[in-house]
Batch of 2 targets.
Target 1
Amino acid sequence: MNDKAFHNIDIPSFQHDLIDWYQSNKRDLPWRKDQDPYKVWVSEIMLQQTKVDTVIPYFKRFIEKYPTLFDLANADQQDVLKMWEGLGYYSRARNLQNAVREVASEYEGVVPANEKELGSLKGVGPYTKGAILSIAFNQPVPAVDGNVMRVLSRVLKIEDDIAQPKVKKEFETYVHELISNEDPSSFNQGIMELGALVCTPKSPMCMLCPVQEHCKAFAEGIEEDLPVKSKAKKQKKIPYVVLLIRNKHNQYVIEKRPDEGLLANLYQFPMVPAAEIGMDHMENWIQMEYGLKIKLTEKKGKLKHVFSHIIWQLEIMEADTDAEEVNDGRIRFVSHDELRDFPFPVSHQKMMKYVRES
Ligand code: SF4
């Protein structure tokens, strides 16, 4: 921890300026309507790696369908994934539902209001735990994400690399020092809101900033140099040929992904690893892999999908088959209309435009 970080910071005045600004400038967001810990939890999980504007309609639909924790606990996982379709990072949805089920069975449906029990739930890391405890239960617990690290690295002039996990822990210590005990909810949300609206990654609007007079980076004119963040490793590119295989009833083959790992339990059109299987061997490979005889017909298009650690380079092809049923448990035939009932990842949803209605 950087001991000099708090030199010359008037903490009560910083808290006051931040909270005051937050109270009069906070956006009217659907999850801010009440402090129901279940709703705060859902919103915080949705907001991870996803922009507020994207989350708003998802959150509204999700809460309409699962208004209480018990509704989500009792829901079918495929339906939950369907509601999450398009938001990405689907393990968030699975973990959320598993954790909610645990709260329903172990805690009679009451979200635990202490760090130990809350932090032991699936998918509830230090950030989510801090967000729920501070926002829903008004406890002075840090909730540190990239936004918060950016703002505080500037205010306190911290030059450590925020990509390092140990530095994130140090930021939790800084928040412990700074957080308001009277209104920790507004304090944490105020920093998040400031990072979203004013202290943005590029060109922060220091002239409009409510904590400008406390900000060391502004005083030295180095706000755009902070935070220091080492570049993540480049994602590995993996090419696939995606096959839209249809039979004479205009039914398409879809495949359920495995229970574990990337996009677990979602559906997709069959994907052939193109780095290992050349175009000439594609039909053979499908027969060996799924016991399905196909004939490639037409190239339909290309698209790219970027995950945090890999990039899928997808070439989409249509193929015909004479088969009317399948013997491999991973795949099934579905009609054009039935496709709507299955949860697909974003990249495969984009391919729906190539699916023929008849
Ligand atoms: Fe961020 Fe500028 Fe405000 Fe400092 S003064 S917190 S750099 S917006």
Target 2
Amino acid sequence: MQDQINTIRDDVLAQVEGVSDLKSLDDIRVAALGKKGQITGLMKQLGGLDPDQRREVGQELNRVKDAVQAAIDARKSDLERAELNRRLEVERVDVSLPPRPEMQGSVHPVSQVMDEIVAIFCEMGFSVAEGPDIEGDWLNFGALNIPDEHPARQEHDTFYLPAQSDDEARPVLRTHTSPVQVRHMLSSQPPIRIIAPGRTYRSDSDMTHTPMFHQVEGLVIDETTHMGHLKGCLRDFVEAFFQVDNVPMRFRPSYFPFTAPSMEIDIGCSFRDGELKIGEGDDWLEILGSGMVHPNVLRNGGIDPDKYQGFAFGMGIDRVAMLKYGIPDLRSFFDSDLRWLRHYGFRALDVPTLYGGLAR
Ligand code: DAH
């Protein structure tokens, strides 16, 4: 029996040595150590031996079994490592290669302009804040000093959602990004310097309105912020965004419930031969609303209006995208027309920065 054991051991170890894939290795394991395997078969014969022999051969068989198992385990991890190396070699990606020319995706003008706006304000020290698209009635209106009977509520053409219970106001699809102001005040302490870009909704549709559109809100609060800061900040923004120096700007008195005083900001432009030029000529384009934050809004945000003050602004992102990139119809933004996207889209790897360039 000893000879038989040696032959089987040498044979199995030789097979393990020579095998080159995991499946065959497992077949060898089953043929040697499985229920009907050769070594298992010898184990079963132990019962027929006399006691002394049984102990001796039994011990020998156990040694062989352990040696075979160890050889299989070692071979298995060798083969697994080799397989991993082979895959790493085959699936290697050269990240320094230029983008594939057949790659067709592009960045939507709204995303591009949002990235440009974020790049400009972050350079000035602002950070980005966010709020939900479905907003509470209080945050969208009440906290912003727009009481129930206020005409602004009708002007906003609000999409209401069903109320959760009888004594709660209906939630709304936020009609502007201004509620993010209050959310941010409630969750942090001055000094505050944030912008909040995002989706907004009003029931309106024509060449320059879509039911879903985009705004960016700005909010700056500390102890000494005044209207001069508002003007300087927005002038810097406009010049960086439209990439023209000394843009004529007009700060027109206006009314918003959440700011006092309030103003709308127009920039100088010309329409000649159907072409719009920003920064020259004697026409004006309104681009944003702004003002000093109303004391009631500060109070609703948990901020003491006797100690703190600041300014806010709100701007339509789609509208400035149309102006900057000469896109005539707002509705086309959301048609998902591939020809339009190829024409107006931006290269995915050109991330806007003030140093690298906002758009190329
Ligand atoms: N929320 C206003 C709107 O949607 C825009 C706006 C105006 C925002 C003045 C402001 C602001 O923060 O100060 O029409």
